[in-house]
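INFO  loader      accepted 1 record
INFO  loader      residues=100
INFO  predictor   begin
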Amino acid sequence: METASERRLRKLKTLAEDPTRGGIRKIADRAGLNYQTLDQIIKGIPLPVKKDGTQSRRNLGTGAARAIGRPLTAAGRVPSRQPNASHCYKIVLAIRLPSS
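INFO  predictor   done
INFO  writer      dumping tokens
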């Protein structure tokens, strides 16, 4: 099962490869982020070595992921959430049953 970090990276790569989105620079500009940082995340550039000798890769945090998603959601291109029970209830009420 993929972690939240892996899922965000997969979605970022998908957005970056989508020609209708305008590339990583345009995505970063709309989100108010640095395109170089997003590029490093996609490429898996490692961060500097820590004092204990370990080294991790750059990842896309929750805040940055939300910043990227906000303009897309506002434009109506990406659903912000799954429909909940009240949405389903309203849909059912809107369906007209055939009159007998």
